Amino acid sequence: MSRPPFSAESLTYLDLDPAPIRPEWIIGGQPVARCRHWSDSSDGTTSAMVWDCTAGSFRWYFGGDEIVHIIEGEVIVSGDGAAPRTLRPGDAALFRAGTWSTWHVPHYVRKHAICRDSLPAVVTLPLRAARKAGRIVERLRQVLPARTPTYAVRAGVPLVGIGLLGAIGVLGF
């Protein structure tokens, strides 16, 4: 069965389910959190959810990258080595995988979150290398002057060369 080409939800009015914060993470108050997962990517590495929380302060561990967009209310977030930042409706933030943040919710906050699972290095290293190689090739194309191809024939086989760089794309060379 194929999946539809897109998913859509009203994030403001989506009904949420209880999602308690771990008691050992709570610093102050009695925050009550709820959430609802509403979509995920075809490869299963990325999901979309809505989360809300009442007043309180707590630490939060991000096991994967999470991009948040505040829908309603506000939250003051801080992290190791980062100055506190107040996020309000319309604000977005990225919380990197493997980090802790402190969240202080003065009254209430509702966020839309895009969560991406971290992939193992055996998968990400080749992808990163390929992207870097692509960027290097693109920079070389921008920097090197365009050259007119030169043509030659060797044993009846056409050779295509570019200046002193030698033959490229040649059969039988």
TrEMBL record:
Keyword Zinc: no
Species, as recorded: Phreatobacter oligotrophus
Keywords in alphabetical order: Membrane, Transmembrane, Transmembrane helix
Domain (S)-ureidoglycine aminohydrolase cupin: 42-112
Residue spans crossing the bilayer: 151-171
Any one Pfam family match given in the protein's UniProt record, by short name: Cupin_3
The name this protein goes by in its record: (S)-ureidoglycine aminohydrolase cupin domain-containing protein
